[in-house]
Specification:
This protein is α+β, with helices and mostly antiparallel strands. β3 and β4 form a beta hairpin. The chain is globular and about 40 Å long.
Length: 158
């Protein structure tokens, strides 16, 4: 599991909001998610099972809007961690995932275009030099939901 070691928000009970974009700004990011927050000043990480995460990466890369930001994977390839703007964890409520709040204390991408992974035992699936600064949380939520539905349908076909 990709762990950053900071406060975590994990959702167990599904909620009705369709977006996490309405969370309040933080000192590190005064703009709403997806509005150009710079992960070099701190960012949060949404961790999901690898199968769902890989499907979501494909969905985001095929989408017409914002591209996917940096993505980590653990050495066992059990989980993926999506870099999202700082403050996302405060309102993250996607079932089956966790969002780790770093508040700029744990995950900060250096100015090096290909920094070392910030978590021991992890590596980059999409390194910062090949990705947007961060994945928009609302777009990630939609992609994860679509990925879950696709995987459920595929599993039923077998």
């Amino acid at each position: 599991m990709v762990e950053v070691g900071m406060e975590t928000s994990q959702s167990i009970v599904p909620r009705t909001p369709s977006t996490t974009a309405g969370h309040g700004p933080t000192a590190q990011c005064s703009a709403p998610p997806g509005a150009g927050c710079d992960p070099r000043t701190g960012c949060d990480v949404v961790t999901v099972p690898a199968r769902q995460g890989l499907e979501a990466v494909d969905i985001l890369r095929r989408g017409g809007g914002e591209a996917v930001g940096p993505v980590l994977h653990d050495d066992c390839c059990d989980t993926l961690g999506f870099v999202v703007p700082s403050g996302t964890a405060a309102a993250w409520d996607m079932p089956g995932s966790t969002c780790t709040e770093t508040d700029g204390r744990g995950l900060s991408l250096s100015l090096d275009p290909r920094p070392e992974p910030p978590v021991e035992g992890s590596d980059w699936l999409l390194p910062p030099d090949e990705a947007d600064p961060a994945t928009d949380p609302a777009m990630l939520r939609a992609a994860l939901g679509e990925a879950a539905r696709l995987l459920e349908a595929a599993d039923k076909c077998c």
